[in-house]
Specification:
Strand order of the largest sheet: 6-7-8-3-9-10
Number of strands: 12
Protein name: ABC transporter ATP-binding protein
Structural class: alpha/beta
Function: Part of the ABC transporter complex HmuTUV involved in hemin import. Responsible for energy coupling to the transport system.
Family: Belongs to the ABC transporter superfamily.
Oligomer: single chain
Helix content: 25-40%
Pfam family, one: ABC_tran
Organism: Borborobacter arsenicus
Strand content: 25-35%
CATH class of the largest domain: Alpha Beta
Mean pLDDT: 93
Radius of gyration: 19 Å
Length: 259
């Protein structure tokens, strides 16, 4: 099942073209790492796919033109975790996670299903121990985990996450990658923009590399993350190997000849 389809998507910010004709399909069961240098267009792509930025081209969610889908209905299909981690409301962590159920709720209170989904999100992100604390009193890493839990509580078929591992220690970075991989195995889709090529190589089922607003590579981690491509796109030399059934990718140094 195709969860999201982009065709010839172009977006400009001011007079500057950022996306220059992006075409891709996202299927259920995929964990896609969206990679590329700073300013390549990764965040713009995610925001445009959600309808937060205007552009030209065709965007379809579950086969339907986004122009024919209300914001509430779109939220049934796609959950979004933005880069920004600021929390402005002095509410409890549990209440903040419950906000993720807003697209599914009527004027009444939480249903038994709402409560079960919220609890699952809290347990998955390991935030139970501070569920009753004020969300504005948390550390940066704790805030990140709470906001991810809110996105998981939305229980949408597709999750778009913009640099979700920022602020997390290695334990929680890997735990989050496991969660995203589990969601894909459960039949959902995940697109996460990432700068950590090691995590992307190890956990994603597919990588889409963007540079200067265009897709320059799309495929398995082994096909996308070659030493020559990393030199051309990122301007770095890299160590690439396979250990225990997965890729290991570690940028080593800048390659000044590439830039």
């Amino acid at each position: 099942m195709t969860l999201l389809s982009l065709s010839s998507l172009k977006v400009s910010l001011g007079q500057r073209p950022v996306l220059k004709g992006i075409t891709l399909d996202v299927a259920a069961g995929e964990f896609i790492g969206l990679i590329g240098p700073n300013g390549a267009g990764k965040s713009t792509l995610l925001r445009a796919a959600l309808g937060l930025l205007r552009g030209s081209g065709d965007i379809r969610i579950a086969g339907r033109d986004t122009k024919a889908i209300s914001a509430r209905e779109r939220a049934h299909h796609i959950a979004y975790l933005p880069q920004e981690r600021e929390i402005a409301w002095p509410v409890s962590v549990e209440t903040l996670v419950a906000f993720g159920r807003a697209p599914h709720r009527s004027l009444g209170g939480l249903s038994a299903q709402d409560i079960a989904v919220i609890e699952q999100a809290i347990q998955r992100m390991e935030i139970d121990e501070f569920r009753h604390r004020s969300a504005i009193e948390l550390s940066g890493g704790e805030k990140a985990r709470v906001l991810i839990a809110r996105a998981l509580a939305q229980d949408a078929p597709l999750l778009l996450a913009d640099e979700p591992t920022v602020g997390l220690d290695p334990w929680h970075q890997i735990t989050l990658m496991r969660i995203f991989a589990d969601l894909a195995r459960e039949g959902r889709g995940v697109i996460a923009s990432m700068h950590d090529l090691g995590l992307a190589a190890r956990w994603c089922t597919r990588l889409i590399m963007i540079d200067h607003g265009m897709i320059v590579a799309d495929g398995s981690p082994e096909a996308v993350l070659t030493a020559e491509r990393l030199r051309q796109v990122y301007g770095v030399t890299s160590f690439i190997d396979t250990i225990a059934g997965g890729m290991v990718v570690q940028p080593l140094d800048v390659d000044r000849k590439a830039h």
